[in-house]
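User: Predict tRNA (uracil-O(2)-)-methyltransferase's structure from this.
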Amino acid sequence: MGKPNGSVHKDGFQFMVDQQSLMGFPWISMYGTDPNVPTTFSRENFEAAMLHVIREPNINSTAILRADILYEDHYELEDGKPALKESHREKFDLSDTDAKRINVDEDTPRETFLPQDLNLFAKYSIVRRILPRNPYKDAVINQTCLVMNSTDPEFKETSAIIYHPHLDSSDICPFYIPHVKQVAILFHKQRITVHYIPFEEVKNNEVPELLKDESQRVVRTAYRLLQTAYKHSRGVMTGYEKKVNHDVVVDKVKFQDQYINLKKKYSKFLVENWAESTDPKKHVFEDISIAAFLIELWIKIYGPDFKNKMQFRDLGCGNGVLVYILVSEGIKGYGIDARHRKSWSIFPQDTKNCLKEQVIIPSILLRPHPDIKKQYPHLEHNGRLFPMKVAHEYIAPATIVYSSEDLLKSPQVNIAEFPSDTFIIGNHSDELTCWIPLLGYPFMVIPCCSHNLSGNRTRFNVRKGVNNGINGNSSYAGLVDHVEDISTKLGWKIEKEMLRIPSTRNAAVISYENQDMGKFPTASAYDVLLAEGGADNWIQNTMTLMKGHPRSH
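Assistant:
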């Protein structure tokens, strides 16, 4: 058993199951804030916070993807009686998914048990459809959500939030909600309390044994609901603003729907056949998320028929999962990496054909400068030589000299001269990260490890006065800022998204607009190369990559 009834937790919250509910019969009190320490926020703060939680139920449970609002009415008091001010109805199609669903056709509010003493009326009456993160495991349900005020002037600072799932039995309750008939979160006399109505009939005010045990999940959920209500109400009062804003570039609902679609198609095969030593769930679901984002981004840029208007190159494609998903979706493109990965062997032949084991040496390092090319049109290379020391187990160290002509012709080298309709992906592409804006194609780069244009590990500082949405002056914040800085100097119009992926390094720098598109390498590209200290060691470091072991990503 958990703590005894009436026990107080270290945060001051009190287990109240032995006390009569302020909501009246058949409600059961579960938890409340400290009765001796009144909350300092207002009813308006509480309601603003709870309306946000109603619209974003994933705040309370990571098993929830989102809520679609099907029905919303807003009432205000006129002459002491509630009058309808606004009304909104929306239909969301579930026909293209075989997700489990329960009573999703019931999209009007259900009746609730209201306390007579508080004279409550529904200020907001909302029906939301809750979509779980895994709709093939948990069911989609509809739920009535009420934001209630009192018609009694004595209780003008009272507010109640009532959740009523459109379910008739605890047996069909999905994992992500408490298995009770109704939930109430009451703000009354500067105190928040949480109350339940269980599915089973309450007789003689007897509390079911399950609700007396704080170790039970349904009881722990009540505690978390109180924590969320208290924390977010305080946040509204203090003017808290989110440090990270998602869904700036691509619509959240479109991304999430695409993610569910791709997850259903590819996750099982990829996890079960994972050939790398790394955690399959992290890499698989991360790349599914990135693929979903890219597809919706390309629809936004090129239109619904984007597959006929563009192709991709995934530079530093690593395990090839992203390439596999995109190619399987009928999108033309290739993945290029310095070393073949074990996971490439699990993919179908059409994906294998799109995975290239090559090193990237941008042609700007091998071709003649544009001014020289104008004078000598027949020149194809710049005549440079690149010595590289190599060690061998049985012979003395030697020096190999690569010429720019040799590298331009080598099948092991990709010089990043792609068709004009190419979109470049840099998914945690390490040494290539800062190079990608210099290549002259629309791109999305997700920075990870910090390297300069020579391929050497380095640390960039965040420019003064720049707020790029990443806290502090960490190495990662500096790298993201540096990629943005290089891109801007090259004339790219930058957008940035904090991706919904299971990684702390989730900033995506995106651009598909540049007035010099098709004219690279431009004079500004050479200026950036010079300002960055050149790239004299890039070729030596890059050729070495072919000899080493692959990284985990």
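The radius of gyration is 29 Å.
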